[in-house]
Amino acid sequence: MKNTVAILGAGIVGVSCALELQGRGFDVTLLDRTSPGREASYGNAGVLARSSLVPFNNPGLWASLPKLLKNTSASFRHDPAFIARNLPWALGFLSRARASAFEETATALDALIRLSGEAHRRLLVEAGVAHRLRETGWVFLYRSEEAFAGTRLSRETYERFGVATQALDAHELAELEPSLKPIFPRALWIKDAASVDSPGRVVEAYAQLFIARGGRIRQALVDKIERSQADAWRIVEEGGTVHEASRVVLALGPWTREFAKKALGLHVPMAFERGYHMHYGAAGGASLRRPIYDTGGGYVLSPMEQGLRLSTGVQLTARDAPRNLVQLELAERAAREAFPLDQRLEAEPWLGSRPTLPDSRPIIGECTGHAGLWLAFGHQHIGFSTGPGTAALLGAMMAGEPCAFDPAPFRASRFQL
Ligand SMILES: Cc1cc2nc3c(=O)[nH]c(=O)nc-3n(C[C@H](O)[C@H](O)[C@H](O)COP(=O)(O)OP(=O)(O)OC[C@H]3O[C@@H](n4cnc5c(N)ncnc54)[C@H](O)[C@@H]3O)c2cc1C
Questions:
Q1: Which atom of ligand 1 is the closest one to the Cα of 383?
Q2: Are 50 and 110 spatial neighbours (Cβ–Cβ below 8 Å)?
Q3: 7, 65, 123, 263: least CB-packed within 10 angstroms?
Q4: How many other C-beta atoms lie within 10 A of the C-beta of residue 108?
């Protein structure tokens, strides 16, 4: 019992934790109601970018807030009733859009992203899927000079943190991505970035590696967890099967809030930044060499194994609220202005949630007042990139070893759960 760990959730975060803890000699069981990497870790844009250290709630948010609140853009929609029900989250999120909080978060995320980049590159090789990685960066596109000028804070932040970028004019952009239509006078090429052509397949390959190294995965919905004795936890599956483990890791992504409330009475301050995706063909042999982010159009277009994946911006609402396809339609219209997209390749768009805490940092570490309960969730827009670094931090803490950097900004104790 002493070294047994049950990890709840087999998205990129749970699977990465499983591999890390297994490598440290723990006896690990991974539980998920579905197969690994089928939820947010499947549907994301597949970008691993050092530039993701700038969270949505940065000081530049105030200038764009009046426009965003009109609820008409493709990049951000919100449900006022959801915000009213989650007012402490919304106020907490906005209160972090000030210089000092931004600095703390950017510094913390930078360390996590850098650690994760190394760990991902190692895992991609070990899992036999290094061919899925493209070291070609990603490109932010601007539809006007003013839009580019408005990103000064981000560009200064990239420079301060040593993120390699290159500003491009229309001509240079046409050389970099010849299939784009000439509607962008400016662009910023984030060179310190990579992407994969199928995040879901990457997570599956990591899960297979965990199994090949002797790990166990159970496909089961976990109904509850409870302490069984002073130093053990009971994990109860739907249907009644019970396991015991000395430690539990909660890595349920956007389901963590509901599960932690029901099973443990914890109040996780999480909101859901939902996003849709759809795959498209490309007309006339057009192609992209790297993901693009059309900042005015409010979408990301990533070349994937299945086709070109168009992913939308944020829909801030309840995790299970009915679908609203307006954002995807607007994004598709904008993307057709920028690139010769062909037909949709699926009947139904994919929908998933980015799990976001008020300070845009995940919680990584042991839960205050619940010995043996470990937390790894809240990775907002960057969980696919930062799963492996999260695992490295959590593993070091669980083993009582020094971390690669100070984990304090990620501690659970910064919130009253
Ligand atoms: C449109 C979009 C684009 C994105 N683009 C990027 C990007 O380019 N780069 C990037 O780094 N990040 C991106 N993200 C964010 C990233 O996808 C998430 O942060 C990340 O996938 C979260 O991983 P996770 O393991 O925490 O959660 P998930 O992948 O959601 O995994 C949680 C798991 O818990 C399981 N589960 C839930 N409840 C139970 C239960 N009771 N019992 C058993 N199992 C349960 C689920 O089945 C699921 O497998 C994007 C997100 C979206 C929505």
A1: 19
A2: yes
A3: 65
A4: 21
